[in-house]
Amino acid sequence: MAQYQITLNDESLKDLFLQDGGVAKLVEQVLNQVLQAQVTEQLKASPYERTEERRGYRNGTLPHPITTRVGRLILQVPRIRNGEFSTELFARYQRSEQALVIALMEMVINGVSTRKVAQITEELCGTEFSKSTVSALCKRLDPIVAAWNERSLREHRYPFVLVDALVVRIREDGRVRPRAVMIAVGINEDGYREILGLMIGDSESEASWRAFFAWLKSRDLRDLDIVVSDSHAGLVRALQTEFQGCTWHRCQTHFMRNLLDATPKSLHEDVYTRVRAILDAPDIQTARLLKDKFAEEYAERAPKAVKVLEDGFDDVTAVLALPERYRRRLRTTNGVERLNEEIRRRERVIRIFPNRESVIRLIGALLMEIDEAWTTGRCYLNMEEYWKWRKEQEVSDQQESDAHQPLSRL
């Protein structure tokens, strides 16, 4: 990761505290210094420096306005004689920041915002805006987000997939309606996490989940082994219809909440410890023995909790079939929950989306950036042991199947 030495003058620091827009001026000064450092790095020479390694010459700068949450910035982008200056400074920023600004603009234009939101938007944009301004920004950003969200998944196999949904409010037909945003995260054959996509459904119904899973299939999502989610009857039925043969694992965090809700408060600590031991058992046989013992001891003191455990045992212990190193990362939907928290940080600024397109634009742009960081960063899981284990399972299943085949007649 490149490191840059930044200098700030006294005037900029005074403006930070004494003038409106002081933060914007400070950020503008820092980013302009970063651009100058990057062009020096690209040319292998400072201004007026004589060196054999020099790869070109500066040719002034071009102003490049961008809108941020701290105000409008004018960056001086370096020009190179007989060449082109390249920087990644704007690429990731532009998608999520523009999506936020456009959503705020749309709120004001469609009359769904308060006066405060209108004032915030004016400060963000640094200028007046119109429907044509919003339309021009959408035309640049929407195709990028749509292309990412509709991309083919054929390039990889995804044995592990985690799914979840969050509810946002959208103004439709003159009314504010709650809608479900369904999100899928996959772990590919190399162990890297990817955000597979998002879709808006009318609710978390079986029909919505089935449409979501069918959409993922149409993009060539394949080779699923385990899908992790919260317990939702419609989701499970849709999964069994669209991805027959894959295993559903119930999120243990949500399961424990449901179980403790059915437990007398005086027994919460004891029940949690005992059930946690069941879920952390080394294998399914041990887990079943511990479960039976728990049911016997708490049948009279916590009958509702025993029933919750009995009913959900197979689904909440599904990951015990996997090698131990994969269980911790797959036993809950915590990874998707953290994504939801990031989305909520942005969604709280909007509160009510003006339309469905703005939801896809804002959330999609944010998820694109996270997806880029995941797929270019550190590997999430070492999958070598999994594929070896899976091959052994397939051989074992084939041998068992052959053993039950009738002998062919001579």
TrEMBL record:
<protein>
    <recommendedName>
        <fullName>Mutator family transposase</fullName>
    </recommendedName>
</protein>
<dbReference type="GO" id="GO:0004803">
    <property type="term" value="F:transposase activity"/>
</dbReference>
<comment type="similarity">
    <text>Belongs to the transposase mutator family.</text>
</comment>
<dbReference type="InterPro" id="IPR001207">
    <property type="entry name" value="Transposase_mutator"/>
</dbReference>
<keyword id="KW-0233">DNA recombination</keyword>
<keyword id="KW-0238">DNA-binding</keyword>
<dbReference type="GO" id="GO:0003677">
    <property type="term" value="F:DNA binding"/>
</dbReference>
<keyword id="KW-0814">Transposable element</keyword>
<keyword id="KW-0815">Transposition</keyword>
<dbReference type="GO" id="GO:0006313">
    <property type="term" value="P:DNA transposition"/>
</dbReference>
<comment type="function">
    <text>Required for the transposition of the insertion element.</text>
</comment>
<keyword id="KW-0614">Plasmid</keyword>
<dbReference type="Pfam" id="PF00872">
    <property type="entry name" value="Transposase_mut"/>
</dbReference>
